[in-house]
């Protein structure tokens, strides 16, 4: 049942108004990140006036002051009035997640959401009417070309890989600990991109051998921008749809299944047909959430060919591919875990 509102809430729809204005909050964060507000605040480590910040960032004081006030309003920055003058300072959230220098920074995710996802959502009415991707209207590419779009130049590829890295920086630990993976000694992360999730597997299960399997362009960039000297994982180039897969007793498909139509998902699952653990965001069976997965499913409609699935839909998909022992474990956060064993 939907939440029953009180008469006062019906008289003035606070929550509804918050939702309606939600896109403005996203754009405030995108803009502050793009301008370098959070980086400057972390670097200075002291309260600054709007005039000082505007001078450092080469913006108008009038516009920046309004942006800073909005960031204070959503608890991302703090402000103190001293002698009638507003002085702005960073918070733990902005320092930890929004400044580029932080190891847990979401700045790459913000950049991708702002430049690639935000414009696409302008075409949501068309996507709902037509039931298909709107990439062609937004960017001049079809859904068939979506997976190739990030690879047209090094800058676009690096932006996409940065977004994937940001995602797994804060989500990887919950995923790899949701189900005991200690019985699996040889692991392949299909489409593992930067290797961030794979490295978390190494940390939690140090005796396993893990390989990231991705296309040559991604592997090259991962080694150049996301690998350390003593990396605990290895990379292998290939195409998991059209080429041979490395041998393993556990295959990870993290955010892979949701990108494709049923037929293509089954093609890949049939090909694996071994111990397999796809990682996806799952819908509740009663269709009442979680909202993260519901919005992500709409995003897949706009951007690609796939969708988010409920546990029963995953069960059907995996049993059709031949898997028998299927476990589902929710993490309570962005991504959940499904383990299918032959």
TrEMBL record:
<dbReference type="Pfam" id="PF00891">
    <property type="entry name" value="Methyltransf_2"/>
</dbReference>
<comment type="pathway">
    <text>Aromatic compound metabolism; melatonin biosynthesis; melatonin from serotonin: step 1/2.</text>
</comment>
<dbReference type="InterPro" id="IPR001077">
    <property type="entry name" value="COMT_C"/>
</dbReference>
<keyword id="KW-0471">Melatonin biosynthesis</keyword>
<keyword id="KW-0489">Methyltransferase</keyword>
<dbReference type="InterPro" id="IPR036388">
    <property type="entry name" value="WH-like_DNA-bd_sf"/>
</dbReference>
<dbReference type="GO" id="GO:0046983">
    <property type="term" value="F:protein dimerization activity"/>
</dbReference>
<comment type="function">
    <text>Catalyzes the transfer of a methyl group onto N-acetylserotonin, producing melatonin (N-acetyl-5-methoxytryptamine).</text>
</comment>
<comment type="subunit">
    <text>Homodimer.</text>
</comment>
<keyword id="KW-0949">S-adenosyl-L-methionine</keyword>
<keyword id="KW-0808">Transferase</keyword>
<feature type="domain" description="O-methyltransferase dimerisation">
    <location>
        <begin position="17"/>
        <end position="99"/>
    </location>
</feature>
<feature type="active site" description="Proton acceptor">
    <location>
        <position position="258"/>
    </location>
</feature>
<dbReference type="GO" id="GO:0030187">
    <property type="term" value="P:melatonin biosynthetic process"/>
</dbReference>
<dbReference type="InterPro" id="IPR012967">
    <property type="entry name" value="COMT_dimerisation"/>
</dbReference>
<dbReference type="Pfam" id="PF08100">
    <property type="entry name" value="Dimerisation"/>
</dbReference>
<protein>
    <recommendedName>
        <fullName>Acetylserotonin O-methyltransferase</fullName>
        <ecNumber>2.1.1.4</ecNumber>
    </recommendedName>
</protein>
<dbReference type="InterPro" id="IPR029063">
    <property type="entry name" value="SAM-dependent_MTases_sf"/>
</dbReference>
<dbReference type="GO" id="GO:0032259">
    <property type="term" value="P:methylation"/>
</dbReference>
<dbReference type="InterPro" id="IPR016461">
    <property type="entry name" value="COMT-like"/>
</dbReference>
<feature type="domain" description="O-methyltransferase C-terminal">
    <location>
        <begin position="121"/>
        <end position="324"/>
    </location>
</feature>
<dbReference type="GO" id="GO:0017096">
    <property type="term" value="F:acetylserotonin O-methyltransferase activity"/>
</dbReference>
<dbReference type="InterPro" id="IPR036390">
    <property type="entry name" value="WH_DNA-bd_sf"/>
</dbReference>
